[in-house]
Amino acid sequence: MNESEFPQQLTLLPSSDVPVQFRLDADTRRRGIRHVSEIRRLLAERQAAKQLDSAPPVRRPIRSRAA
After folding, report:
1. Does residue 31 lie within any of the structural domains?
2. Could you say which of 12, 28, 39, 49 would form a disulfide bridge with 24 (CB–CB 3.0 to 4.6 Å)?
3. pLDDT tens digits, residue range 21-60?
4. What is the DSSP string of 38-51?
5. Which pTM was predicted?
6. Number of structural domains the chain divides into
7. Does 38 map to a domain?
8. Could you give the count of Cα atoms lying within 13 Å of 42 in the half-sphere of its Cβ?
9. Is it the case that residue 11 has pLDDT exceeding 80?
């Protein structure tokens, strides 16, 4: 297999050893990194909501009506 047969991936980090056709400018990298952080935040929010839904219900003591 030669190098062109392997899949290649864009990188959001600056690197001089990345082939020219895959190099991103600074603005594109910033937008990409911002987008990745937004996706991570959304996933964390979904995970937190899922954990709240699966948590057992909170039991509160029953108050007597006589005061």
Report:
1. yes
2. 28
3. 878 888 988 898 899 999 999 999 999 988 887 767 777 7
4. HHHHHHHHHHHHHH
5. 0.54
6. 1
7. yes
8. 6
9. no
CB 32 within 8 A of CB 24: yes
* CB burial readout 20-32, b (16+ within 10 A) else e: eeeebeeeebeee
DSSP-derived secondary structure letter, 37? H
Q: Is the pLDDT of residue 16 over 90?
A: no
Containing structural domain, residue 45: 9-54
> In angstroms, rounded to a whole number, what is the distance separating the alpha carbons of residues 11 and 18?
8
- CB under 8 Å to 11, separation ≥6 — which residues? 18, 22, 24
Residue 59 lies in a domain: no
The first and second tokens of residue 40, run together, are 């991570």
